[in-house]
């Protein structure tokens, strides 16, 4: 049996390592929703980003290429969504679900349908190295949290940086302000000269691209193995949509949200180890039905949703025109 | 115009959604078929006369296009068996796939296959049990065969499963030998479930007994993920076993090769399940417990064909309504040993124990324990010792020297772990 402190450290470490794709998905979806579009295609968009980013990364033996291609491939899903819902005024919910179906279909078609055996990640040393832990000097030497928070791969830090950057962009730049106006009231934004069409297109593409980075992360985490029958993304895209609500459309809060969801996700696996390491204070963990861990995050989201709708005057982050198509000529 | 276009597109998309949701039915392309002609089969079993019209029906839980996992194993088994019998799966195999374990869904899948003229219907998932039981009565002219179940009748309905625990024991020997060689008594096991199902806990127990035969000090740590297939959780569980229990060998009862990949990434070793995973993890994987489903499917299709239109003879032809075969019949086995990784003596031990089970001389859940002695000249000898088989609470399951527990227990009611297993 391992040292209890070590078990605790590993538990915290895995909360971050395994669940960062949620952060990318959530931040991407926040960007999209702030432009007034409800994109339910996160799962499919992440799958597309994962597939193309991974294959390109392997082919070029480069993490940077993988990141770029996953951003572009997922961005194209965003472009498709924008073309259908913004230009052609299709229903956003249906279009989003279609993107999910389409993205997963494309994932399975390329991953399995072609009958090819795709390269294992071990064949690309630079992907392996790119996903290896990068210890932050000084901080990583701290007990427990040094390993848990500051000895991660570069994509973890990038995810947090993207979240903070998007938060700054939304709240402290002029374009961010205009974007929020488009999401709240596109008619009003339009009347003061904001190019709503352009804003929607750019942010749907950019937000989807960010989701794609999360997909790429997941591909690397799973070691690039196409075995088994479920997709790498494995429902994380759907959780990301719930997390947007949990985080109240605030990218910085979504970091917290990711850790809360991640806590329960990782607890499913670690409950037994924790109960063994701390038989006194945490022994009860092994008696909890494991299915509860799967359900709890969503229960919390429901509570947050109810709480935030009660305190509406506090200013819910939900854009007023979310999910509504804007058609200039009907203004 | 623009609005009309958008409406049309939206309609097309929602239709495509609906289209993707339902089960896929593949219908035979044409009825004019040529048995055995160019089917690419190496095995030259002569085509039984008049099997050109014989139709095999199959109900799958996931897609027939999977390249790994449970449905893949069965689909592969059925098509292999058909080719070996000189049949053409393209025209003689009727499939309804992606059928949930839902009574109505299974009933309608059976109706579809019956209408298409299936002579025998295989249902591969446990939850199909009630629907198959009822429909076997509605269609007395069709043979019904249910995988992993326990129901059957006296005429046209049987169930089938295998003694996979025997193969697990062999894999356990390989894992135990390796843990002895590397001097690490901690062995990990990523499980879908444990004592919730006899299938899972009998596998864990057999594996643990195999491990203990080679390394009496070993403990098997079990982490369950509470779902049959989830690659992400499988990876997390395998990593947690290595991180928190310092496991040096990782085995599994779950669909994907993720636990073996994780073992390789961490420089430890592993035993897979369902398929030879040496290809995915050549530096880690030792051997896997595998199924040869085609062995059963060939037997069953032959029996159904031998009924010659009278399905009520099916159970008689199968020699009973519960087919339960193991190493002796070649239904289960250990995959070829990865000798570059396996510890010395593993091959000898596995072969000798395998032969003992094939000959019916010894079985896993008995009051006789095995151990191995390697003499100075490298000869390995299997030693039998009479000892109680006890569970984790110390309750005696089989007293020393006692006979094997009943098949019914192994298949259906086992709900304990043997001593030396720790769930964490």
Structure description:
The complex is a heterodimer of chains A (331) and B (424). By secondary structure, chain A is an all-alpha fold. Chain A has 14 helices and two strands; from the N terminus they run αααααβαβαααααααα. Chain A has a single domain, classed as ABC transporter involved in vitamin B12 uptake, BtuC (Orthogonal Bundle), CATH 1.10.3470. Chain A is 70% helix and 1% strand. In chain A, strands 1-2 form a two-stranded antiparallel sheet. Chain B has two domains: 132 residues, Rossmann fold (3-Layer(aba) Sandwich); 219 residues, Response regulator (Rossmann fold), CATH 3.40.50. Chain B contains 13 helices and 18 strands. Chain B has a seven-stranded mixed β-sheet, with helices on both faces. In chain B, strands 13-11-10-9-7-8-18 form a seven-stranded mixed β-sheet, sandwiched between helices. Chain B is globular. At the A-B interface, α1, α4 and α12 of A face α1, α8 and α9 of B.
Entry keywords:
heterodimer; A: 331 residues; mainly alpha; 14 helices; 70% helix; globular; B: 424 residues; alpha/beta; Rossmann fold; seven-stranded mixed sheet; 13 helices
Short description:
Chain A is an all-alpha fold and 331 residues long. Chain A is built from 14 helices and two strands, in the order αααααβαβαααααααα.
- Broad CATH class of the largest domain in chain B: Alpha Beta
Compute the number of structural domains of chain B: 2
Number of helices of chain A: 14
Q: How far is it from the N-terminal to the C-terminal residue of chain B, by CA?
A: 63 Å
Question: What is the approximate shape of chain A?
Answer: globular
Helix proportion of residues of chain A, in percent?
Answer: over 70%
SS-derived structural category of chain A: mainly alpha
Rg of chain B, rounded, reads 23 Å
The secondary-structure element order of chain A is HHHHHEHEHHHHHHHH
> Which strand-content bin applies to the residues of chain B?
15-25%
In CATH terms, what is the architecture of chain A? Orthogonal Bundle
CATH top level assignment of chain A:
Mainly Alpha
Low-confidence spans of chain B: 17-49
- How far apart the termini of chain A lie comes to 68 Å
What is the CA-atom radius of gyration of chain A, in angstroms?
20 Å
